[in-house]
């Protein structure tokens, strides 16, 4: 598919590409090229051993789960040339994301990619969405035509957030929804304890996420964990699924790369 094939083609360049936002905003002649490469970096397959993420209090962390339709090359080009420059102008900052190639580990949803990005603030994020709806003709219709799933969870940060993901390990993203009116604190404590016994490490655990009308995806917990190997994780999962799930409504779980 267009987006993922371009990722591979530009990989060696992206690994060494230091983005200067001011140049992107002023270099009109090459704007669409720079913006396109910037977005590709959010789905980078870079072989960096450690991926580090740093966000400041007041910023908004975006997590997107995407499934892309086929045969939309020309429409995707229009999206990158119209919508993305507006987002960049408003401070949208893609980070290195993840591909999802294998069948889901748990649950009934298998995205193709997890995008990680940030905004300067909730207010700017909302203002940009209004601007996109005004200036990009058929903005939401275009998204629906390009992506069969465009699931959004965003996290307004009340304090600084920094974490690292060791890509030499087996990396798993897990989303949990709790039963209405229930609490999952005890379940999550047991989950974390069990993970440690199988040499799992939690890179980040996100809660209190918000979502957007038309793009709803709002798990109560989103965890990125790393494991020495797939076997270590499978041993953990075999024990974990035996835990009581009475207070758990749903789970989605993916191997991310």
What can you tell me about this protein's structure?
By secondary structure, the chain is an alpha+beta fold. It has helices at residues 2-9, 11-15, 21-26, 31-41, 73-89, 122-135, 139-146, 185-197, 230-240; strands at residues 50-55, 60-68, 93-99, 113-119, 147-156, 161-166, 170-178, 201-207, 221-227, 248-255. The two termini are 17 Å apart.
Main β-sheet, in a few words? 4 strands, antiparallel
What is the topology, as strand order, of the major beta sheet? Answer: 3-4-2-5
Taken in chain order, the helices and strands follow as HHHHEEHEEHHEEEHEEHE
| E-strand count | 10
Number of helices: 9
Mean pLDDT over the residues: 87
Oligomer: single chain
Helix content: 25-40%
Which regions are unreliable across 5 or more consecutive residues at pLDDT < 50?
1-39
End-to-end Cα distance, whole Å, is 17 Å
**Rg value:** 19 Å
So what's the overall shape?
globular
Given helix and strand content, the structural type is alpha+beta
User: Approximately what portion of the residues adopt beta-strand conformation?
Assistant: 25-35%
């Amino acid at each position: 598919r267009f987006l993922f094939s371009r990722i591979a083609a530009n990989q060696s360049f992206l690994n060494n590409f230091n983005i200067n936002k001011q140049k992107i905003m002023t270099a009109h002649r090459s704007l669409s090229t720079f913006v396109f490469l910037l977005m590709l970096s959010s789905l980078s397959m870079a072989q960096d051993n450690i991926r580090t993420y740093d966000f400041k209090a007041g910023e908004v962390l975006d997590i997107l789960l995407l499934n892309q339709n086929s045969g939309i090359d020309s429409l995707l080009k229009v999206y990158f040339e119209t919508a993305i420059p507006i987002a960049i102008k408003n401070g949208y900052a893609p980070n290195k994301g993840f591909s999802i190639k294998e069948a889901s580990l748990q649950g009934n949803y298998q995205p193709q990619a997890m995008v990680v990005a940030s905004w300067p603030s909730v207010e700017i994020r909302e203002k940009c969405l209004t601007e996109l709806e005004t200036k990009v003709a058929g903005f939401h219709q275009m998204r629906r035509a390009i992506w069969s799933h465009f699931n959004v969870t965003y996290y307004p940060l009340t304090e600084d957030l920094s974490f690292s993901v060791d890509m030499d390990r087996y990396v798993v993203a897990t989303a949990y929804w709790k039963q209405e009116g229930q609490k999952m604190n005890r379940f999550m404590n047991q989950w974390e304890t069990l993970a440690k016994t199988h040499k799992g490490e939690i890179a980040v655990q996100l809660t209190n996420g918000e979502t957007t009308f038309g793009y709803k995806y709002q798990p109560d917990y989103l965890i990125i964990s790393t494991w020495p190997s797939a076997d270590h994780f499978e041993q953990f999962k075999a024990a974990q699924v035996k835990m009581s799930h009475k207070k758990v409504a749903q789970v989605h779980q993916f191997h991310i790369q």
